Structure formats: C-alpha cells, structure tokens
Amino acid sequence: MEVNRSMQTGKAKIVRMTEDNLDMDALREAGRILRSGGLVAFPTETVYGLGGNALDPEASRKIYAAKGRPSDNPLIVHIADLEHLFPLVREFPEKARRLAERYWPGPLTMIFQKTDLVPYETTGGLDTVAVRFPDNAIAREMIRQGGGYVAAPSANTSGRPSPTLASHVEEDLGSRIDMIIDGGQVNIGLESTIVDFSEGHPVILRPGFLNQEMLENVIGEVTVDPGIMSENIHVRPKAPGMRYKHYAPKADLAIVEGQPEAVFSKIRELTEKRLSEGFRVGIICTEESRDRYTEGDIRCIGSRADDRTIAHHLYEILRDFDADGVDYIYTESFETPRMGQAIMNRLIKAAGHEVIQA
Ligand code: TXA
Ligand code: MG
Predict the structure, then answer these.
(1) For residue 7, what pLDDT band results from cuts at 50, 70 and 90?
(2) 251-262 as b/e: b if 16+ CB within 10 A
C-alpha cells in the first residue's frame, strides 16, 4: 500500500459514478485507502461525507485535521448492514429498533452508549456513539469495501456550508485527502436527523429531512433538544457540533421575519441601503416572491409549495454567494410545515442568530 498518505501530499484522485452504475474498481480502491488509514470523500443522500476508518484512532485524527475541526466534536459512524450496529453499542432500545426498521437505510442518525470497540478519538471523548446507515448505493458499497465502519463528518472545511456537490468538496479539501467520489448532486441537501437514545427517552438533537412528526408516527413522543432552535445563544445544544457558528457564508447573512409584504419591503429597503454604500448584496427569495425584488443578486432557492426544494439548494446558494464576493445576504424566513424546522435551524446558525423583524 502507498504510505505517503499524510496531508498536503497533492491532489485527491477524483472518480465519477452514479448509484445505478457503480464503478467497482474505484470503490475497491476507496476501500483499500480506508483500510490503510486514508481519507475518502463520498456522496450520501444528505450531504457529502469525509470518510475514514471509524475504528482507527489515527484516521479520526486525520479527519479532524483535514477539516480544521475541534477534536471534541464527535463523528458519526456509518454502517452498511444492520448487523454492524451491534458491536458498536451497549444497547439497542425497542424504539430505536422500530425507527431503524422504518427509516434505515436513510437520513437518520441515532446515538447510543458505545462499546470499547469505538475509539474515543471518533466520539470526541464521549461514551456515546452516533450511528447512521445511509441510503446511497455508492456510500453503502464504499463502506462495505472499507471494512464496514466509516466515520464521516460532512466533507467541508469546519465552519463552511456542507457540500452538496463534489466540486464543493474539492474546493475545501481537494489537497488534503486521498480520493473524492463524485456521485453528482445529493438529494436532500441538509444533514441527517439526529435522535439521541443514550439517556432513555428519544430526543432530537438535529432536525433534518425526517421531522418530529415522522418520528412520532413510528414511536410516539419524541422531544426536541431546546438548544437547537433557540435564537438565544445561551441555550446550549446537546450535540457539540450544533454549538459552533456553523454553515456560515463569508458574507453577513440576516434573516428577515414577519408578514410577507413587510418582509419584501424590508429586504428591498436593506438592499438599497447597502447598495448605495457600495456593497454587493445577495437576496434569497422563493419562486413565489421572485418578482418582488429588482435590485441586488437575487437567487430563487425553491418553492414554498415543496420545501424540499428549499432544503436542496440552501448550502449551494450560500457557497455561490461566497464565490461571487457578496458582502451582505438578506433571506426570507422559511417556517414551512414539512422541513421548516431543519431549514431554519441551519439558517439561524448560518446567520449567527441575526434575525430582523420586519
Ligand atoms: O447527514 C449527515 O449526518 C452527514 C453525512 C456525511 O452522513 N454527516 C454529518 O456529520 O453531518 P457532522 O460531523 O458534520 O455532524 C455530526 C453532528 C455534530 O453536530 C456532532 O456534534 C453530533 O452529530 N454528534 C455526533 N456524535 C454525537 C454524540 N455521541 N453525541 C452528541 N452529538 C453527536
Ligand atoms: Mg458538519
């Protein structure tokens, strides 16, 4: 095996494939890289992940170094067979089993008490482990080839929006990792829903494509960690990664809330003011409100009629604004029924809690 897998060794090898046309040679090579302690970025249905062998403390250290991520922020262990869960966890509660039956493989991460098999380097020193069984054929085959246990945070530089395209990964990590598997644009565009079972009662630590109602339909009452939706920065979320200013674009992002007409005119007013001061301004609107704006760099994020389209484009738009050198971004607020909680959770953090009442 090649030994020179330290950081700064050049450029990651990029391979392309689709879920219905797997390149098995490339996946076997990815597996060899993972088993020898290297790093491979790969597509999942939520966002791209930066994978390393979850049972190898050295690989976990490399993941933190490549992302520039604080090492007390735990990684999610990805598996590709339910059988692979059992060696990782001390117990598998009945409700967790029912969620796994219904939503795995899928955009669901569950947290349990860990066994000694899982190194503390992977869990950021915690006695619990987060496990996810992704529903992306490329991811699943890569995990199997890599030995079954892949630790993977989102494949972005710490603090930047999560990657929804392989080009985002290349931009952030291209010179720091061994391989990037390009599987095209991801489906969902926001990270998995995290449910904590480690203290008995199930608690949502991070909202995602699977919302509270969809979980409760299967297992009854699920509570939401009060830290995650709060606009009050003093309420601490339980998931360490939810505490940092995160998903942040370079521009100053503010969310404008209120009645639709008031929001439109407030955004127009703020935009005019910043333009007159010589700044570049980005606006995030929807198909429904597109014609309410005339000035600034106007981006339509999706349709309120199907909020999955909004989730799908959020990180991509934030990255595009960065590339365009925008100074200020004003966005409408998206308290939509289906994915509103997940979208607003990410937006509030990206905005560093800056919410303007119209
Ligand atoms: O959709 C996803 O989950 C993506 C893809 C690649 O699978 N992964 C992802 O990983 O979003 P990451 O590392 O960017 O976010 C993991 C979150 C962090 O907020 C972390 O603090 C939390 O999960 N987390 C992980 N293990 C935990 C644990 N044992 N207890 C509490 N929070 C945990
Ligand atoms: Mg992340």
Answers:
(1) very low
(2) bbbbbbbeeeee
Q: Label residues 47-86 b or e (16+ Cβ within 10 Å = b).
A: bbbbbbbbbbeebbbbbbebbebeeebbbbbbbbeeebbe
The pLDDT assigned to 223 comes to 96
Burial of 154 (0-12, 13-18, 19+ CB in 10 A): buried
Q: Say if residue 145's pLDDT is above 60.
A: yes
Range in 6-20, 186-200, 321-335 with the lowest mean pLDDT: 6-20
Q: Tokens 């198909």 appear where?
A: 287
Separation of 317 CA from ligand 1 center, angstroms? 22
Ligand 1 atom nearest the C-alpha of 208 is 1
Note the pLDDT tens digit of each residue in 115-138. 999 999 999 999 999 999 999 999
pTM of the model: 0.94
Residue 153 CA, ligand 2 centroid: distance in Å = 5
Residues with CB under 5 A from ligand 2 (ion): 154
Amino acid (one-letter) located at 101: E
Return d(Cα 257, Cα 254) in angstroms, integer.
10
Q: CA 212 to CA 252: how far, in whole Å?
A: 31
Nearest alpha carbon, ligand 1 atom 6: 49
Cα dihedral value 321, 154, 21, 145, nearest 10 = 160
Q: Could you give the domains of the chain? A: 3-229 (3.90.870.10), 252-357 (3.40.50.11030)
Residue-wise pLDDT tens digits, 239-277: 887 776 667 788 999 999 999 999 999 999 999 999 999
- On the question of pLDDT at 219 being above 90, the answer is yes
Mutate to test the pocket of ligand 1, among 72, 118, 122, 154 (most ligand atoms within 8 A of CB): 154
- Please tell me what DSSP assigns to residue 244: S
